[in-house]
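Blinded run. Sample ID left blank on purpose so nobody reads anything into the name before looking at the predicted structure. Input follows.
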Amino acid sequence: MRGLSVSAVFMGLLVAFVGFASSFAVVLEGLRAVGASPAQAASGLLALSVAMGAAGIVLSLRERLPLSVAWSTPGAALLVATGDVGGFGVAVGAFLLCGVLLTVAGLWRPLGRAAAAIPAPLANAMLAGILLGLCLAPFRAVAEMPGLGLPILGAWVLGGMVHRLWAVPAALAAFVAVVALGVEMPPGALAALGRGSMPEAAFVWPVFTVAGALGIAVPLFIVTMASQNIPGIAVMRSNGYPVTPGPWFAVTGAFSLLAAPFGGHAVNMAAITAAMCAGEDAHPDPTRRYWAAVVAGVGYIALGLASGAVIGFVTLAPGVLVEAVAGLALIPAFSGAAVAAFERVETRDAAAVTFLAAASGLSLYGISGAFWGLLAGGAVMVLRRGRS
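Blinded prediction complete.
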């Protein structure tokens, strides 16, 4: 405890708030989209909060490095784009399979290398296609409910002018205000939220199907590796820390496995919040910055345990407003993925095929467009290279 500092505590608490507030709406929407009941979605949010907090604490204390862990926000967006593939039990079976893949990728190098070998334009195009639908939600909200949607969008813009990290919390604050003041609620609803308790952990029996494996598990694994784990490792490397990613992936995969039966889709190495923990603001001494990640882990667990009132409030809001907040949280990820997908001229057509298939809502044999888009884009890339 001698290494603990005021700056590390402040940064850790800020990381926990930003990480939770900026994307919990995406997680709830994703779990609901694949068939979770409100109680099961609340359980999934609780399981993910505890899993990513505990994983961050374990890794940071064991390695003495600022290793921040987060839930897979792009993975939650994938669930929104995929929709129901046969009930929440099928989705939970896919979450378990994804956890196995993440764990094996850390323990068995060939799988990790295979995931890293997926062409970056295709992986980014798939991610951009997955995110597109939710990123359109803020503008649908403005069209359907201009009086409620415009303040949320405006707060996001103004918050981002102060600092990009405050854009989504500002939008969330506006969401709370417009729902409390502009949405008709049952008598006593807001007072009841003040007595909100911890969500109950709801065990879900997994069901394993081909559609779940190919439509959710495999794309979820690829998205989590390509857009979360690998950038997270790059952040640590850029800050001068020694990198041994295999054991780190295995730990996050193991915690994903523990969260899956209770509705959690996946946890992984963080990128944005990792940069916050690994930067000078956490502590001038790089060897003491790991305490910021430890405090963030404690904060995630506390927020998960106290999220009953938050979840209850969200259920009172119109769905399009919840989707609007989720979409605003994903705009930076969408823009980054789109730029990376279409940056190279020689792979642009293959990336376009992948993007369009993933964004189209295509479903064949119960398998989502993300998987088919990756296959189709890969085929176009191979054929074009064969002719050149």
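Unblinding after everyone has recorded impressions. Residues 6-387 form one domain.
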